[in-house]
Structures are given as structure tokens and as C-alpha cells.
Fold:
Amino acid sequence: MKGFTLGYLAKHVNGRLAGDPDVEIKWIATLKDARSGDISFLANRQYARYLPGTGATAVILQEKDLANCPTHAIVVDDPYLVYAKIAQKIVGVVSEQVPSGVSEQAYIDSSAEISPQASIGAFAVICAGAVIESGVQIGAHAYVGREVRIMKGANVYPHVTLYDGTIIGQRSIIHSGVVIGSDGFGIAMDRSSGRWIKVPQVGRVLIGNDVEIGANTTIDRGAIGDTVIEDNVKLDNQIQVGHNVQIGESTAIAGCVGIAGSTKIGKHCLIGGGAGIAGHIELVDNVVVSGMTMVTKSILKPGMYSSGMPARENRQWRKNLARFNNLERILKTQTKQEDHD
Amino acid sequence: MKGFTLGYLAKHVNGRLAGDPDVEIKWIATLKDARSGDISFLANRQYARYLPGTGATAVILQEKDLANCPTHAIVVDDPYLVYAKIAQKIVGVVSEQVPSGVSEQAYIDSSAEISPQASIGAFAVICAGAVIESGVQIGAHAYVGREVRIMKGANVYPHVTLYDGTIIGQRSIIHSGVVIGSDGFGIAMDRSSGRWIKVPQVGRVLIGNDVEIGANTTIDRGAIGDTVIEDNVKLDNQIQVGHNVQIGESTAIAGCVGIAGSTKIGKHCLIGGGAGIAGHIELVDNVVVSGMTMVTKSILKPGMYSSGMPARENRQWRKNLARFNNLERILKTQTKQEDHD
Amino acid sequence: MKGFTLGYLAKHVNGRLAGDPDVEIKWIATLKDARSGDISFLANRQYARYLPGTGATAVILQEKDLANCPTHAIVVDDPYLVYAKIAQKIVGVVSEQVPSGVSEQAYIDSSAEISPQASIGAFAVICAGAVIESGVQIGAHAYVGREVRIMKGANVYPHVTLYDGTIIGQRSIIHSGVVIGSDGFGIAMDRSSGRWIKVPQVGRVLIGNDVEIGANTTIDRGAIGDTVIEDNVKLDNQIQVGHNVQIGESTAIAGCVGIAGSTKIGKHCLIGGGAGIAGHIELVDNVVVSGMTMVTKSILKPGMYSSGMPARENRQWRKNLARFNNLERILKTQTKQEDHD
Structure:
């Protein structure tokens, strides 16, 4: 494990060094668990209580916390961001690395183009016409459909499924269990027979550069045109993205969100966990949707939107519900009183 | 790519041709993106503004929109349904096709029965006693457990897991990442030890004909009897179906819905995305549940049911919540006033 | 199929036998569907109507139901728990069994340690430094990363993905499609460029003994320290567990729940389906959260907490919503009236 001097790291992130530039940093740790050789950080106020007693060799923090720091420090405006950069330096970006080279147990169609600098795991399947560029890592059991293109430096973890025609941009990271390009929910009711008729789904999924997609997330192919995930979008685990959805650059979406078909989400949006977004609507740039919120109409003004109900003690909640369900009576009485006033 | 004359297509769907029967249609497209040789359709009013300027060679539409159509048309009552039928004609039902024949990289137990007209992908596993009928396509890495039966023309995509005893009906389509037949959530608390005891799950999952199941959906085997998905049911992605659930014919369920154990859903129901349905209840035929609704009791009358709260600007939402939590005071005051009136 | 005498089974569970100890029990069934040779149980009152007409040879029930039982019975305090124990005796704990021995189609790194009493399915991948203890069953297509340890008697179903460093305790059961150890949602916004920077995720996931994890559930590795699932925890399908979450002993969580990062859930908690739990909070022991509830703050007192809204007929629901959105007006008027009183 390669170490770095604190001075080198401070310079790397343009931080102000408060302490000895020559101490060596070998690993990362939380304030609470850090030991000698570790660098830690203070970003969430909730953890400030661990600063005075930390065992870290150095801490990344804001000016205001320096007085409480018992050890060397790098003083910056945004400790979490700087921690991210330093951690990347120390441990690398991607935590899992598949063995380099092409596994003899992989099945690769003769018409696929595989860069000699790509790595392909055991029992991976690469179908006809697929293109795997240099520096790409394909995990074991990954399925890469026909005419799929995976661009430079992308990392596809084990057990990913990429249906035909999917494009994965440079340096994008696709975690295990992700399915990209499955058919969208396109069905038409034939009233004469009472049966659903499948609407063929012929679009593709286009994933930009520097996108990360969490485990078991699903992204459907477009019904006709393409489903598009722009550069630097970050999707957490177990998200469902419907056909023909567009997600704008640098938008981040937390786990368990569902986005129905043909909806367009702008750039730099933040969508909280468990939110549900209806189909055929638009969210402009810089919209924030809080957790478990249901969005049924377009949001045309940046800002924060909510509808999730926070938990209460069950007995109290039941009372609230009962009142809610009796509002009509109150309102009517109220109105009558107003009329009489 | 095979083309069709517009006259042939109009006849195929019993539509009224408004234009030249001899123009050739080669592909499908949206009104907005269509080019020469494409057929498009107008179903959702939201997209009517693209009709006058469409580049399509022909459009499927209702009588009332014909005047705004700049090109050839097929006039019908239900453009979306007719589009589905024509699109199936032009591009086929299933967008991904696995190579025909049985891959030499598949592992097939000697006691499995595989039709010579079935196709099995690389690294698929077919266990003892499984039966794969003619026209079935099994994708790469699919796992077909013991005594599983997959009936004529069904399509099982890569990375599907079918536990022992699962039955898949004719022409059904199972997308990647789907798990069918996993153990249901059956646990009993042993109060003497404070530990959970597993309840063995010995039922199966029976999937009917013409069912489609979206990516990463899970369907648990019955605890004792079977979990049953009837003919023509359509399940979107990331749905969870608990043990011993029954879903009636032609019911359609959108993404991210959870259905707890032993619940029975009728025929021709529509369940919106993100809805949650409690266990041991019944929904009769023709029930519509809107998105993100929580169903906790049986629904014995057809109709539409809801409980999802639509998003509002966050500051306003917080005010609503605060009021909601103060309702008791208002109600009490109100009641007192009424008493005094 | 091995049978047991009713007397043997009654003794096994310390139940009071009401009937003939020598009748033979061969299988389990519901009250409604049971036939000769089956043992059934009555736990949920909803099914009491099936007791008088049951075809079962014996029924596990409480004293109060004995009078309505038409056949032999085992009388106990907790019929569901006793049923679980008897069903385990009759059908075994785990319903699917992979063939014993190590498949020749598996790929096993030469540095992995595999017990001669372990079983490994076709196309499984076992990476460098992994340890597979005795009695472990690894399903087909399972991916076992580097330095993973799977302890005695654990059962890993087909298509499970275990990222590097994951520990699975004794007798734990991991269902298909589960992903353990994927990167958590760690991203920092670099405001100078407007782009997200990935925060490396270097912790592990530690799963205790006797844990069961349902199909397609995902558990992220810790960002720095570890994500910890303690002994006897039961997770249903499609649950998302964020990085550095801790779940205490014997807690049970129903399907489709999302738990955000760094949250600590106590022992013996019950979390209902579809609930969402925010990050960086704590739930103490013995907390019950009902279905579809949103928990945004720490819960420091045992008890039941709720916020899910039950479904109502759509027209009535819309009225409720309208009133809810007009509460401010009512409140203001109310307050004025109070001022004038």
C-alpha cells in the first residue's frame, strides 16, 4: 500500500496545511475509528463530537473546527469534496478490480471488437457486433448484447445485463444486477378481446460518460426513440427508469426511485430515495425532490418539492388520519358559520 | 428490412385508409422524429402539436385529427392499439433474439427434455427434469431449476432465475434479472429464544400464457399451495409478488409495486407504479389503484382507489403538514363552538 | 417421502396431543386444501372458517379452537411457530438443494479454500482468497469475490453476487439476484466544475449467522467502516440497505424497504413493506414501523410508528386532498374567530 505525505496531499487539493507536511498517510478512516497513519474528515456536524478524541494522523476540516483538532489538519472549504479527492488518490476510484486480460471462460462472438487493453471476466458473454474499448473491465457473468458499445475505461461489474444496442460512455460504472435495455411497459388494451397487445420496443439506451449506476437498477430501452442518461448522472441502487426517460447532466437520484416513461428530468436535479415520478412530464434543471415524494405534474420552476409524510407514534397517527377523514364536516360547518357571520 | 404497403397495413387492422395505398412503410417512429418511410401515431393528446409538422409517411389517428394530418393516414378508433398491431407486423413482437440452437456452453442435465426447436444461450443451466418446449428461447446465464416447465414460444431473457418447479406458460416473456420461485417471507418468532424460525416454503409459481414480466421483478413460491399469475397478466419492472398471491387474467401492474403474501387480485385490474398492497386481502375484478397508493383492506367494489399525496413546493408542504398535525386543536375548538351555538 | 407419527411430532414440539398418536403425517397443507396424510394449522383467525371442513389428518391449533376441529390435533399456544418447527421436520429447512460436489463448470481460483463438504454449482466463480466452509451450497452462476468468507452450512442461491471481502455467517440463506458489497451512494459535488466526484467505498459487508436475505435485495459495502447485518436478521425481497447501515439481531424487514446510509436499526425491530428510513439516524430496539411509513428522524422509544395513508375511493380521496390543501384558510378563520370570542 502506497503512502503519501500530508504535504503532498494538501497541495493536491489546494488545501491549507496545519501541521507537519512530512507525516505519512496510508489509509482513510472515520474520526471515530481512525488510527495512526489514517486521514479522516469532518463534514456532517453530527460527527463533530468525535473530533477531539480522534486517533487519526490528520483530519480534513473547515477553519472553524481547527481549534478542536488534536492532530495535523488540512483546512478547506468543503471537507467532504476534498476527502473524496484524497480518498481517490489513496485507494483508487473503483474498489473492485477484475483480473486483467480476457478470461478463457468468456464467450465472445467472433464479430465483436475487443480492445487488447480490455479485461473480460469468466463466463461473460459478448455478442455479435459489440465493441469493447480500451481500459474497459467486464465482470464475470456480464451479458453484453449485440451491437453494444462500451467506451474507454468503463467498469461493468459481474452479473450486469446489457440488451442489444446499449451504449455505455467513458469511465461509467455499472454495478451488479443492473439491467439496461429491457423492454419498457408498452401495452395496448384490445377492448374487443379484453386482452393486452404488446407494443414492440425498438429504441436503445444511451448512457453518457462518468455515469454510475447502482446495483439492481433497471433502465428500459426506448419504445421508439432512445432512453438517455446524460454525462455525470449518478443513480443509486434499485431505481426503475422507464422507456424514453431523459435524465440531464449531473443529476443524482437516490435508491428505490421509480420514473415512469417519457419523463424528462433536467440537469443538476436531486431526487430523494423512494420518490415516484409520473410519466410524460418534465422537471426543469435544479429541481430537488425530497424522499418518498410523489410527483404527478411537471415542475417548471427550480426549487424543492415534497409530499412525504414523516412517521409519528402510531396512536397519534391514527388520530390524525381520523381527523383528516372528517375534514369535510368541519369545512362545511365552518363555511356555514362564515355565511352567518 | 421488409416493408409493407400502407394499403396492406390498413387492411390488416381494419382501418380506413386516407391516402395512397401503395406507399411503402419500412419502420415506426414518433410524430416528432419520423422520416420518410416511417409510420407514426397520435394517441396521447399531449403530442398533437407534432402532427402538422411530422415527417412521417403515414400516421395512425382518429377521424377528428385527420384534418391536421399533412400526409397519408389510417383512421381508426384506437390509434395506440392499432399502432401496437402494426408495429408488431413491422418489427416483430420480441426485440431481442437469442441465437437459435443450443449453445455448447450451456449446461443441460441429461434428464431434461429440450425440444429440437428450442434455443438455449451460453452458460445457461437447465436442471434435472426440466422441460423446454418448442420455440422457447432461453437467454445466456438463465437458470432453469429442477422440474421447471417452459411452454411453447416463451422467451426467457439472460440472467433469469427460475427456482425448482416453476411453470411458464406459452409465449410468456420473462426479462433479465427476474427471480421466480424464491422462498417467501415465512418466519415465526420463537418467544422462548427470541429468535425467528424459518417456515419452509414448498409451493410453486405458476405463470400463465401471454404473461410478460419486467426486469428484476421477483415472485415468491407459495408457502404451501402455489403462487398464481394468470394468462395475459403484465408486470412491469421491480415488482415484488409475495408467496401465494394470485393475480387475475389481464391485470396490468406498473413498476415498483409490492404485493404482500396471500393477497388475491382480480381480473382486469390496473395497479399504478409504487403502490403497496397488504397481505391476506382481496381486490375484485376491474379495480384501479393509482400510483403510490397504500391498500390495506380488501376492495370489494370495482372502481378507482387512491391515497398518494402529490408533491407541492416544499415550504407550502411543510405548512400543510404543520396544520395536519394541529387538527386536533381545531376540531376540539370547533366542537366546543358547535356546542355553544 | 418420510412420514412421522402424530405422537412423535407432538412430542417434538411439546404440544398436547388430542387424538391418535399413531396416525402418520406425510406432508403439510392449508386447512382449505389439506388431504389425508397432511398436517395443517390455524393461526390467522381469517382462516378459522376452514377448520370444521378440513380434510387434514391433523391440525395444530390453540385450545379454544379444539371444539371445532373435526380430526386429530396438536394443541399449543403458538400454532404458527409450532407449524414452522413441524414443517422443518417434514420438508427440511431449505426448499432448493444444489447437487452436491463441485461442478466441473465452476471457475475456482487456485488460492480459494473450498471445503470438501461444500457444493458449488455450474458456472459459479470463486475468486482469489475466498473461503468456502463445510456444508456450504453455492448455486449456479454465483459470483464470490476475493477474500469472501462463507461459513458453515450457508446457502447461496444461483445468481448471487458477493463483492470482495463480504462475510456470510453460518447457516445464512442468500436468495437469487441478491447483490452484497456494491459501492454505496457516495458522491461529493465539486461546485467549481458542477460535477460529482466519486467517494471511494472501501468498507465491507458483514452478515451474521442465521440471516436470510430475499431475492434481489441489495446491501452496499461500508464507505469506510463496515455495513453490519447481525445474527438472525430476516430481510425480504427487493430491500435496499445503504452503506454503513447496522441492523440489530433478530430484526425482520419486509419487502421493498429502503434504508439510507449510516442508519442504525436496533434488535427485534419489525419494519413493514415499502417503508423508507432516512440516513444517519437511529432506531432503538423493539421499534415497529408499519408499511409504507417514512422515517426521517431517530426513534428513541420502543413502540409502533406510522405514516402510511390507506387507500380510499378516488373521488373521496380527491376531496380529502382538496380540504387538506385549504387548511390554512380554515385555520386562519378559526384563529380570528377565537380572537373575537
